[in-house]
Amino acid sequence: MAGGIPQYGKLARYYDRVYHWKDYRREATIIRELVREHKKSEGRDLLDVACGTGKHIQYLRRTFTCTGVDSSKEMLEVARRNAPGVEFLKSDMRTLNLGRRFDVVLCLFSAIGYLRTRSDQRKAIINFTAHLEKGGVLIVEPWFEKPDWKSGTVHMQTYDSSGLKIARVGFSSAAGEFSIADESYLIAERGKGTAYVRDAQRLRFFEADWTVETMRRAGLQPTFSKKSLMPGRKLMVATKMP
To answer: What is d(CA 220, CA 239) in angstroms, rounded to the nearest whole number?
Structure first.
């Protein structure tokens, strides 16, 4: 994730349990289909920016030579266990500079929304493009647009196993150009007791027209895919121009 988000250090070891419902295998299949449709370069090197715990790479490594980057060292520790043998590096998408290029660059699960200014998002898009081979494909899963965000709503998700119980409750609101998801986690773990973590996530609403224009200026040909990885979230596919 971008910017060294503190809560992911506290929650990294529980992250895959919290999102146990997320179908990474299906999402990896959609990503492969989009790459086949849009990629013009010859290679199969893939960079997953804000890779989190490496769950997409766990499936994509069967098709691509994968590298993952994230700004959270705790998330990367989990990723290395999920996908042993894959190169995982600590880096921020705003300052990303690996000194090499890839045929596919991913930024999924709305991670780009954690960048709170247009300037930072522009830096990230320019860095994504710089890491692409000519004819390579960038796939970005944006955050919600402002009209699609439902302020004032409450949510709950749970994880239940014999040795671990997690309850995640949240309240959604908005402030200007930002969505706010005020979430609290109650965690009970066998042999360890209970823990409480509060996580107020503040993400910048997605600006479709601005993002398209920024990608074009960076040297990309962007489009919105008819496919999506998660309900209610768009998916952008951009090919780097020759």
So the answer is: 5
Cα first-last separation, the chain: 29
pLDDT tens digit string along 59-80?
A: 999 999 999 999 999 999 999 9
Which residues neighbour 1 within 8 Å (Cβ) at sequence distance 6 or greater?
Answer: 8, 50, 52, 70, 71, 72, 75, 111, 114
pTM over 0.70? The answer is yes
Contact 42, 51 (CB under 8 A): no
Nearest to 41 by CA among 124, 120, 105, 122: 105
Note the pLDDT of residue 2.
Answer: 38
Among residues 109, 111, 105, which one has the least CA distance to residue 92? 111
Nearest to 101 by CA among 54, 79, 134, 72: 134
Ordered structural domains, the chain, with CATH: 6-145+207-240 (3.40.50.150), 146-204 (2.20.130.10)
State how far the alpha carbon of 121 is from the alpha carbons of 48, 74, 94, in Å: 16, 24, 7
User: How does DSSP classify residue 147?
Assistant: G
Nearest CA to 53 among 111, 99, 93? 111
Helices (H) and strands (E) in the chain, counts: 7, 11
